[in-house]
UniProtKB/TrEMBL annotation, chain B:
Any one Gene Ontology BP term: purine nucleobase catabolic process
Binding site for substrate: 58-60, 90, 276, 307, 321-322
Cofactor binding description: Binds 2 Zn(2+) ions per subunit.
Pathway(s) annotated for this protein in UniProt: Pyrimidine metabolism; UMP biosynthesis via de novo pathway; (S)-dihydroorotate from bicarbonate: step 3/3
Name this protein carries in UniProt: Dihydroorotase
Single GO MF descriptor: dihydroorotase activity
Species this protein is from: Pseudonocardia thermophila
CDD domains linked: DHOase_IIa
GO CC, alphabetical: cytoplasm
Residues engaged in binding Zn(2+) 2: 150, 177, 230
Active site location: 303
Domain of life where this protein originates: Bacteria
Amino acid sequence: MTDDRRGGPADAAGQVTPARELLSAADVTRTIARMAHQIIERVADRETGSLAHAVLIGIPTRGTILARRLGAAIAEFSGTEVPVGSIDATLYRDDLRRGPARALAVTDVPEGGLDDLLVVLVDDVLMSGRTVRAALDALSEHGRPRAVQLAVLVDRGHRELPIRADYVGKNVPTARDEQILVKFTEIDGVDGVALARTTGGAG
Amino acid sequence: MSLVIRNARPYGEEPVDLLVEDGVITEIGAGLAGPEGAEVLDGAGQVLLPGFVDLHTHLREPGGEESETIATGSAAAALGGYTAVFAMPNTDPVADSEVVVEHVRRRGEEVGLVDVHPVGAVTVGLEGQKMAELGTMANSRAQVRMFSDDGRCVHDPVIMRRALEYASALDVVIAQHAEDHRLTVGAQAHEGVVASRLGLTGWPATAEETIVARDCALAREAGAALHICHVSSARTIDVLRLAKEQGVRVTAEVTPHHLLLTDARLTSYDPVNKVNPPLRTAADTEAMRTALAEGLIDVVATDHAPHAAQYKDTEWAAARPGMLGLQTALSVVVHTMVEPGLLDWRGVARVMSERPAEIGNLPDHGRPIAVGEPANLTLVDPDGVWTVRGENLASKASNTPYEGMRLPATVTATILRGRITARNGEVA
Amino acid sequence: MKHLLSVTDLDAAEATALLDTADRLKQALLGREVRKLPTLRGRTVITMFYEDSTRTRVSFEIAGKWMSADTINVSARGSSVSKGESLRDTSLTLSSMGADCVVVRHPASGAAHRIAAWTDRDRAVTGIHTSVVNAGDGTHEHPTQALLDAATLRERLGGIAGRRVGIVGDVLHSRVARSNVFLLATLGAEVVLIAPPTLLPVGVEEWPCRVSAELDAELPALDAVMMLRVQAERMHGAFFPSSREYAIRYGLSPERAALLPDHAIVMHPGPMIRGMEIAPSVADAPSSAILGQVRNGVHVRMAVLYHLLAGASS
């Protein structure tokens, strides 16, 4: 998920109960490492073990950060630099008319395009699946990948479309009125994943 | 036919009762009892003034009846406290002959709500080329006393000179719409900061000032009476001051909108604010007020200019210039001049009744409120307040710039030769 | 954002957001074979042009179509306008047909403002919200031109704040100049207007810019120079003695262009009169950003349509 889950407890005018830590900074690093190994294992060519046909595409903002982290981990473990890019799904969302016009995020498809590549789409949180659906539509207009797989740090359930992740950092069953708060050092100053419940208020 | 006015204060001074019989004030005193069957008007301690005289009104008939007729314009005048109006000749056909002016005069008499005095054109068809038959119009049943090409400037100095010379022998006044058309080609708004920001071609103040200066010199040489319509620029006041000091027989009028409104209103591009000459700056409106108080500007004249919706509900450049004025004139004068203490009620009587009647040569209007004088009177509630709604005004058109504004002072009754023509906001 | 009528309706944040969106849209379309985004599918954009224009009209049409909006062009000639239909009736007719957006160019200053007032007033009856985009009203403004000029400055110079931009020529009759002066001031640029006194508006001292009559003296310090077309069709005469004298004193000749700093760019809103306000070699030099302006025009107009139409109707 991208922009529509809110920030931390401080944002909700004091009506959010303190967040419960799900993953510490060290947990995040370990989880990303495990995911990277899983990706390498599944994506590598059966005969040659090559990763040359793979590309990581993150959904901004935190999906892109996660994609870069995965790319770095994959490079460390396999020796191969898998290209990393980002695709903004905003223009393909199905709920644009529910609020004011949203700011657009960066789209940066690596040189060479996506034709015949294996795209691993990366996002931080998977919930309804609508963001991923929008990202798939956006991807399809940049080329025709040979396959698209999905990697997410947290799967919190409540799917509204038939979409499932290939690589999951952590499964966290949640109630609808709870929030998953993902923090990355690159923009939040610290790594971590927490669960918060909103009690009344806008949250 | 008798009328008793109880408890009214002439010029805002001491309350008195007045008895009017057969159109003349016959008695003024306390506790007057009129004859049997006399109508009674309760003055309620309100201000009694001589009936207002508007030297500059557009009644649109003949030819422009979609915007106003002599009947609807007369109703607006009566409701505004007017007992006489001068109807400008830019009708269709133009009032440049005795036929048209006599028609307008007769129509006004038929309606009977206000004395309609037609203004004759200075030039045939308002084209500025050939003098119209001023003498014939002056001597006609319409008894034309003022001539103007209003809407257009009498541009050719030779024509203006001849008209002034000719007029001096007829004892009539030439009223000039001062605008050098060559300086105002394509002009849409006052040439200044606002117009340049809004991309509207400017109407420079110099276009007014230069014609006024020229015509004062021509009037001086001809010994003729010159009247300047709708003065709008502070610079023109300077010219008038000098001319009057020199003894030139020049008089001047200002519209209520040029006392109050500025070009700051133009930012919405609503053409209700489009008028000729245009709304200018706050400094200009201030100069107008001071000049009116001092008498450098002699009178208030409305330049009442009704325009049907299709002429105003357009983009700015396509809209016709002009604003309604008859029913809001008194209120605007009270708001801009009386409330700040620039004029008292005697002053209002002077600028809205006495001086206009003098300039227009009307012996029965603008008279003192005294025994023996014709009963052309206006009763004003100085404490009244009203909200202006264009659709509720008597004019056929609704182009008032004061839409939605709350203004002070209301006209309680208007009396024309002893007969009540308007009372409590209704035409009699 | 409900309408785009004047650049003064935008503060620095809003203007920057539009430019950022234009950048993102450019990125989103990069390298694609299918140059189409689905975002405005089901929205109807009607362009209503009462003045001849190819570049702006086509630019808006492409912008609408690339966003998947149904885009229809109406020109005054050959329409009910030539039968005497008023501007008000024409715009309300289009609005009532279901136009989500009307893009209007008209020779009367303030025309877009009036259309917005009429369609807003009528909304109570029709229930249709129509956004109005001013594509040029008389000599008043041309907001999307200023936005694409700003986008071009940002692209070529790396930013706008603190940059020195000269605008040269017929400022008096130029809606492009007005929009640029006010938008660039909002975005923090320093603007200088260079023109003979007859082509400067009364009251220009109150505008947020400097004024100069000496082109040669100003050029060495500029980061960008914007040449305006000399508008023969708008003039009633006597603004300068002859075309020859104008070109000599205010035209951007190769010698003059050499006075500009190396990094400086040359811009022109088009269409150009080569040899009058700009020499052909200067128009085609590497420092010329003219074609870039045109390219940016499409993305900027896509961004405007996005901000007006993609979200909830206000």
